[in-house]
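Action item from last meeting closed. Structure (83 res):
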C-alpha cells in the first residue's frame, strides 16, 4: 500500500520507536477501522502488534489524499487487551 507521512507522523515513528513494518501492516490489514469522531476525512486503523508485547497500534490516516496520508501513530494504551 502506498502512503505518505506527515512531518508529525515521521517524527512520531522515530521518537516512539515504531517500526515501519508495523505501520505498513496496520495500514494494509487493520483489525479495526474507525471513523474519526470530529474530522470525517480521517480514519483510525488499529491492529495488535504481537512482537511488541501485544500492544495496539493506532494509525490515523487522512483518506482524502492519494496516496493516503498518515497523520499520526501511537500505541493506544486504552485498547490493550480489548482488540
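Sequence:
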Amino acid at each position: 500500500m502506498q502512503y505518505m507521512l506527515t512531518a508529525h507522523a515521521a517524527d512520531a515513528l522515530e521518537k516512539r520507536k515504531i517500526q515501519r513494518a508495523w505501520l505498513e501492516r496496520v495500514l494494509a490489514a487493520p483489525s479495526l477501522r474507525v471513523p474519526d469522531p470530529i474530522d470525517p476525512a480521517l480514519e483510525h486503523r488499529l491492529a495488535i502488534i504481537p512482537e511488541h508485547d501485544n500492544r495496539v497500534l493506532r494509525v490515523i490516516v487522512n483518506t482524502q489524499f492519494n496516496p493516503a496520508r498518515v497523520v499520526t501513530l501511537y500505541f493506544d494504551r486504552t485498547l490493550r487487551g480489548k482488540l
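Note appended to the action item: The longest strand covers residues 42-49.
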